[in-house]
Task: inverse folding
């Protein structure tokens, strides 16, 4: 299966992996001059349809870059995309030169009460098929105080699309592969936002402990989606790390 994707720019390859609240449109405000940017939609998000059989997101992304003739690349990955980025960097360490994690998730990592409460609220709304309320809950939860009305509208559009694509899809789950964070050799930057759920700061701390040389940054202005909330603050941080 081919993922929907965009390619822009010129230079070394940079793959951008989106959050589960969004799709590849979340990278519209992101700037990385001097890089060829590859922005895919995961299955069931944006313009990529839901799968009808078992799949693995990391393998999908690697297959995409293979099809584009890309051998080595950097990754900038948000939330669920961060979880996928960690898997790629651990399973194919020689292929990933730099890894930027923005409020990354990590499968199997212990949750926190605030995140559990959100999950329960969202599940209850989706069970009632109240998509309007579920979208509003996600926008309110995941965007920090600097998000503009335009940004909130974009996130609402992306999240609603994901709900509509996924809610009646066949119950086919992803295939999970084991990997070891200590296998990652990419230069790594782990970012969290002070207005986000505690679990994501804990994950960033854990990555910094497990991946040698990781740079750890906490943003006092950010929620869960800093690249959307204040690109003028985040872009220079990421650009400097990628170019170092």
Result:
């Amino acid at each position: 299966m081919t993922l929907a994707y965009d390619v822009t720019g010129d230079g070394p390859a940079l793959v951008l992996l989106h959050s589960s609240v969004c799709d590849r449109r979340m990278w519209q405000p992101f700037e990385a001059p001097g890089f060829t940017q590859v922005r895919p939609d995961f299955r069931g998000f944006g313009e990529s349809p839901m799968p009808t059989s078992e799949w693995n997101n990391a393998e999908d992304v690697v297959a995409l870059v293979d099809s584009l003739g890309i051998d080595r690349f950097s990754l900038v990955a948000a939330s669920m995309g961060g979880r996928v980025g960690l898997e790629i960097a651990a399973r194919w360490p020689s292929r990933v030169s730099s890894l930027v994690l923005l409020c990354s998730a990590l499968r199997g990592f212990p949750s926190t009460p605030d995140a559990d409460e959100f999950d329960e609220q969202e599940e209850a709304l989706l069970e009632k098929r109240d998509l309007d309320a579920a979208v509003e809950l996600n926008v309110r939860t995941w965007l920090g105080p600097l998000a503009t009305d335009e940004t909130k509208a974009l996130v609402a559009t992306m999240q609603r699309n994901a709900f509509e694509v996924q809610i009646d899809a066949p119950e086919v789950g992803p295939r999970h592969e084991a990997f070891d964070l200590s296998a990652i050799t990419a230069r790594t930057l782990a970012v969290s936002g002070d207005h986000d759920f505690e679990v994501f700061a804990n994950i960033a701390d854990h990555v910094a402990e497990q991946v040698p040389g990781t740079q750890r940054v906490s943003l006092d202005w950010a929620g869960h989606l800093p690249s959307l909330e204040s690109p003028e603050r985040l872009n220079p941080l990421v650009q400097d790390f990628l170019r170092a």
About this structure: The mean pLDDT is 96. Helices lie at 57-67, 80-91, 113-127, 131-142, 149-166, 198-210, 226-229, 231-243.
